[in-house]
């Protein structure tokens, strides 16, 4: 049995290990001292506050009014309600896209100017966006959980 290929392989492995050790010795020194090049505190960024139903609706109306070049008072509210979207598509899935499979709180609006009816959806931040009719999937109505 010829052991020469195994001996060559072992020699190569030992050589690579030696090169790796030498490279590690030339690297940065390990220290218990803190790295003073980084800031001591992390700046906290305040997330913008989520819009409530009324503010979100006002933005949706303003968007539709601007898009149709009418006064915001000309926009009629057909439907305005909080919803729980079944996934990250927020009721407005785009073809060939994948979305998070988690419930998302948000809003659903149907607005009208003359014969033009548009759906606006919003996620947890409350910022509404126009969802084309062919893609709009209104969230199911939530049961009334108030007890009388």
Give the helices and strands, then pairings.
Layout: H1 4-25, H2 53-68, E1 76-85, E2 104-113, E3 116-122, E4 128-131
Antiparallel strand pairs: 1-2, 2-3, 3-4
Give structural notes:
With 148 residues, the protein is of the alpha+beta class. It has a domain at 53-93 and 100-131. It is built from 2 helices and 4 strands, in the order ααββββ. It has helices spanning 4-25, 53-68, and strands spanning 76-85, 104-113, 116-122, 128-131. The chain has a 4-stranded antiparallel β-sheet with strand order 1-2-3-4, with helices on one face. β2 and β3 (116-122) form a beta hairpin.
Question: What's the gist of this structure?
Answer:
The chain has a domain at 53-93 and 100-131.
Tally of individual helices:
2
Distance between the termini: 91 Å
The percentage of residues in β strands lies in 15-25%
Structural class estimated from helices and strands: alpha+beta
Which word captures the global form?
A: rod-shaped
Record keyword descriptors for this entry.
4 strands; rod-shaped; alpha+beta; 148 residues; 4-stranded antiparallel β-sheet; 26% helix
